[in-house]
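Page 42, continued from yesterday. The earlier attempt failed because a stray header line got pasted into the input along with the sequence. Redoing it now with the clean sequence only.
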Amino acid sequence: MTTSSNPSTPFTFKQKQLLDWMIQHVEGISEVTSLEVKQFEGGQSNPTFLLTVGSRKIVLRKKPEGDLLPSAHAIDREFKVIKALDNVSFPVAKPLAYCTDTEVIGAEFYLMDFVEGRIFWDPRLPGLNPSERSAIFNEMNNTIAKLHALDTDVIGLSDYGRAGGYIPRQIARWTKQYQSSATEVIPAMDQLIEWLPKNIPSYDDTRLVHGDFRLDNMIFHPTEPKVLALLDWELSTLGHPISDFAYHMMTWRFAPDLFRGLAGSSFEELGIPIESEYLEQYLAKTGQQIENSKDWEFYIIFNMFRMAAILQGVLFRALQGNAASEKALEAGSKAKPIAILAWEQVLSLPK
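This time it went through. Structure tokens are written below.
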């Protein structure tokens, strides 16, 4: 994917079984002398591996092992959505095959093409000049606007979720997920669980949403500001487009040491748009509307709550020994400070 996320950890599957399955289900794969498997670093959800089959590179993504939270790690949904998006030339890694037979490698998995390019982990984009940073951020904005403009009926995803009521369902879902994975009492989460359902904006819309739209979930062209593939579709569904965009824009509220954020940056010097400019660009491209600033703050607060719940699940799995990354404990520890930050946003709202 890029030098910053190259797989470095050798991993052993039942290689003959995996190769035999690939020969039967992936076009262009035949008997070869060896199959090399390495695990990608980063990511806290579904373990991801690079398969080198002869001269060809393929990515395998599987469910983690152990007891899993209900409805989590839905790699079957990931495969369905990237297959639909690939059919309409939206930038995703080309899906190859899905395996439901857990006897092959011990869990369900799917295969997709390896995409060569750049992944940026730091949104401040060190090493780029201001015009390059500006172009990268404009491309991200264009990509999510393009996603939210898709007609789900046309691309075959009209049954990919429920129309309307996305935010209330999400609050209920992540409240339940958080409570089932709690490892300590976090008062800010309890306060958010009470506040959020009472303050949902009236505006509703239904679009295909990514659910985890971040800079580091995109593979960019090796030299151009062009998204070649948007990755990690596990949380995608039919949902609220502005909420999806607000999740992406939490980056502007997070400090760099909290969760790869931009807060405190010299935006003009870096060539990165400030929050209001970036939001206005998206609204102009999509025709979406936000009635007032309090509604926008709600979307940000809701997504901080949602992220805190997700990271609490990461921490829970790490403590059980089932996490997909050695850094899971560190990532999971961010749940509490993000929840506290979200509640601080509530307290700063005008009365």
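Notes: The mean pLDDT is 91.
Reminder to self: strip header lines before submitting.
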